[in-house]
Amino acid sequence: MAKPRRVCSLLLRILALGATVSATILMVTSHQTVNYLTIPFEAKYSNSPAFMYFVIANAIVSVYGLLVLFLPSESQLWRLVVALDVVFGMLLASSVSAALAVAYVGKKGNSHAGWQPICDQVHKYCDHVTAALATGFIGLILYVLLLLYSVHAVLNPLLVD
Asked: What does pTM read for this prediction?
């Protein structure tokens, strides 16, 4: 019974790794320069601390996911991995939330603060950011599913190794 459980966990981890790596790459490659009223305007992820936090958090979670893939199934460190899954899931949730808030202001603006939307001028940039956020959110969902599966496997007495 331990082998199907390991295969399912491995599959979820590979999918989550792919999502977090993709989100990182998509966000890092998001940049566009346009002329707005004859003034060059450059939009890139590094202009926003929330987007930089999103990139750093996804990169950290990607490295963690890659390291866990090489952990032997007999190791006692798997109990620690469940706790670390919680920590890294929370890190992903906070980074996706912060980046979504900034992306929403970029898309809709804020009339009360006098902030104008920028997505009307930099479509390519906004499309990259949207794809990165969607992929990051998929990674977050996969980590939540992975966490629920791991907790179920640890607490279920019928799935004894």
From this structure: 0.88
